[in-house]
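Comment thread on ticket #2218

A.B. wrote:
> Attaching the input chain for the structure job we discussed in standup.
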Amino acid sequence: IILCEWNYRAETILKELRLEQETEKTPIVLISDIDRKPVKDKYFYFVKGEVSDETLHQANLEKAKTVIILGDDNVDYKQRDAKVILSVLTVESINKDAYTIAELINEKNIETCKRAYADEIIVTSKLSSNLISSAAINHGISKVISDIVTYEYGSQISKIPVPESEIGSLFIDVLIKMKKDYQSTVIAIQQGKEGKVISNPPSNYKLAADDYLIFIGSRD
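C.D. wrote:
> Ran it. Output below, let me know if you need it in another format.
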């Protein structure tokens, strides 16, 4: 995993990744124009500088599976999104197979970022405002969202391939079985590992061989 830019969000991302069994020992390389490696972590590496062909090469982008590109808090919001989009373009020009996750502050830049071939775009300002408005209408809802996206406490969102035994089964049957056997709630189906996501699928949806179950469950 390559992480571009260092700020409080990057620190939280690193902490969450280390709490997840799948990524607790994954090599993570930080590219940031800061003075020194910011944390002690045996599997965490640091490349000093701006995101460029040179620093991405030093970070071994050719072999990276995921690249997280955060906004630079030291520039204004217009420059911040432009810098993220340019970084996405640079990453995609070197390794199209790397899964790029881009953080934007303005949703008007989503289409431009898509044209740069970002695989996933998160608009932090939109997420925050949507969550605040939801909490205003339905008090306490933010606590639920916080719980399921934080690995350290409570329940988390996870994804697994549909078991062979359940291929061809109806969604409603697997939903009941997951809750009964594993105390987990299936909330969506993803068609392929990085394909279309169907939230709250119809009860008669028939599970395919390449589908994934996205569910809420405990860390155990």
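A.B. wrote:
> Thanks. Noting for the ticket: Residues 77-94 form the longest helix (18 residues).
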